[in-house]
Amino acid sequence: MAILTIIFGVLLVVPTAYWVRLRLPQMRPVVEFITLMPLVIPAIVIVFGYLRLYNSSSYIPFTGSARGTDLLLMFSFMTLSLPYMYRSVDTAMRTIDVGTLTEAAQSLGASWPTIMFKCIFPNVMSGVLSGAFITFAIVIGEFTMPSLLNRPAFGPYLQLIGANRAYEPPALAVIAFAITWGCMVLLQLVSRFSKSAPSKP
């Protein structure tokens, strides 16, 4: 679930940040405000909004199967990680000249998919990786979304084990801390590498 959330989040955020910076700079405040909304709205409100829209009696897709609910859960994880993913990618995109790269690629006959995946993505990879590590930590630690949508995840499993076992919960908590701290260490390494890379000959 974390890997799918990262993949779809990157495919949503990178083209959006690129297009806003290239063609719609006046829309940046609006996009930044929208991406900050998950920090303002509590997760439980988003979950009940999901349940209201996608209940089993509705005719909207993704509602009648476990896979569909997993897809909705992935979208909810994307929503929660959107502020961090967008900020990481947008910060990385500020360090490059998007307009010059686009014009150079177009002058060589590159199509828009080629520009996106061969020019923009490699230059913002540090921001993408930073957002990916934060997204992974969010998915690992999220409890409200999967528990109220009744889907198996690490957070509800940790709570279930804690209510019925004596020794396993501390071990799972240590594992969760280790994974989270590992993500933070990788984030620091990626940030340090991206800062030192331009100075190399």
Notable characteristics:
mainly alpha; MetI-like fold
Give a structural overview.
The protein has 201 residues and is mainly α. It has one domain: MetI-like (MetI-like fold). Helices cover 79% and strands 0% of the residues. The protein is built from 10 helices and no strands. α1 (2-22) packs across α4 (66-94), α1 packs across α7 and α4 runs antiparallel to α7 (125-141). The chain is globular, with a radius of gyration of 19 Å. It starts with a helix and ends in a 5-residue tail after the last helix. The model has no long low-confidence stretch (mean pLDDT 82).
Mean pLDDT, to the nearest integer, reads 82
Q: Give me the CATH fold name.
A: MetI-like fold
What pattern of helices and strands is seen along the backbone?
Answer: HHHHHHHHHH
- How many independent structural domains? 1
